[in-house]
Design brief:
alpha+beta; four-stranded antiparallel sheet; Alpha-Beta Plaits
């Protein structure tokens, strides 16, 4: 099983590969998948992302990465909450 982690306060320059390296180098954790949320129109990072890590490594990654300086910004890392259902607008 794996857990989804929320990574907030990302710099605009953050990429999926830079997040993979951060987890590998700072927390010594391999991620299963990474996604940086991007603006639909500009393609620029929205300042947050998600990473899937093995259950047994999730708490360690949260402890090691919360507050770490990444691109001049202190990261917020915690377990992601389930996505809420939204009604469609027409």
């Amino acid at each position: 099983m794996s857990k989804s982690l929320y990574i907030g306060n990302l710099p605009w320059s953050a990429t999926e590969e830079s997040l993979r390296e951060l987890f590998r180098n700072e927390a010594n954790v391999e991620v299963e998948s990474v996604r940086v949320a991007t603006d639909r129109e500009t393609g620029r990072s929205r300042g947050f992302g998600f990473a899937e890590v093995a259950d047994e490594h999730a708490e360690h990654a949260i402890e090691r990465l919360s507050g770490v300086d990444f691109g001049g910004r202190a990261l917020t890392v915690n377990e992601a909450r389930p996505r809420e259902e939204r009604t469609r607008r027409y």
